Amino acid sequence: MKKTIPSYLNFNKSSYPWSSTIDYKQSPLLYRVGKGEQGVLICEPYKAEILAHWRFKTPGIAKKSSEHIYQMFIDYLSKDDFVGADMARKFLQMGFTRARRYANYKGGKKYDSTDYHLLEKGTGDDQKAISANYFYEKWQLALNNEKYAALKKQWKQKYG
Per-residue pLDDT tens for 42-62? Predict the structure, then answer.
């Protein structure tokens, strides 16, 4: 099996643009969009608000979770809260990627914990693939939301 080093082993905290000590509702201009899911488990108070509803254990739970988080996304947009909407989008994306990880790898473990070689793909839980699809559908709705896209473009131009 292919041996690779997981990216989290080379993580440089000092250059990471998000901080758990910042209240991003009080100081939204410090928020950075980043790539993919970056900052999703750091940016408070959004992390706590959304994480309380983020679940993908079974398809039924994932469906309810993705619908709730998507509604949070819509609610944040209705308040012109781009940071909240982007965080909700990130949680939808993370629901998809994490559920896919569990669908692809037994126990969601992609790498061996001793020497970090890549474990065998296709050993995961088929039900997690269904869970992933629910999150994927809502994630794509969020990405293709016109108001979100406009706010994101403006935000990135102004703040990064």
Answer: 999 999 999 999 999 999 999
Domain boundary assignment for the chain: 44-158
* DSSP β-bridge partners for residue 117: 3
Q: How far apart are CA 50 and CA 73, in angstroms?
A: 10
- What does the pLDDT read at residue 7? 63
Phi/psi of residue 86, each to 5°?
-65, -40
134 or 20, greater pLDDT: 134
Crossing angle, helix 59-78 and helix 126-143, to 10 degrees? Answer: 10
In this predicted model, what pLDDT tens digit does every residue of 86-114 receive, in sequence order?
Answer: 999 999 999 999 999 999 999 888 888 88
Give every CB contact of residue 36 below 8 A, 6+ residues apart in sequence. Answer: 90, 93
pTM for the model stands at 0.88
User: DSSP characters for the chain?
Assistant: --B---GGGG--GGG-S--TTSBTTT-GGG----STTTTTTTSBTHHHHHHTT---SSHHHHHHHHHHHHHHHHHHHHTT-HHHHHHHHHHHHHHHHHHHHHHHSGGG--B-TTT-BBPPTT-S-HHHHHHHHHHHHHHHHHHT-HHHHHHHHHHHHHT-
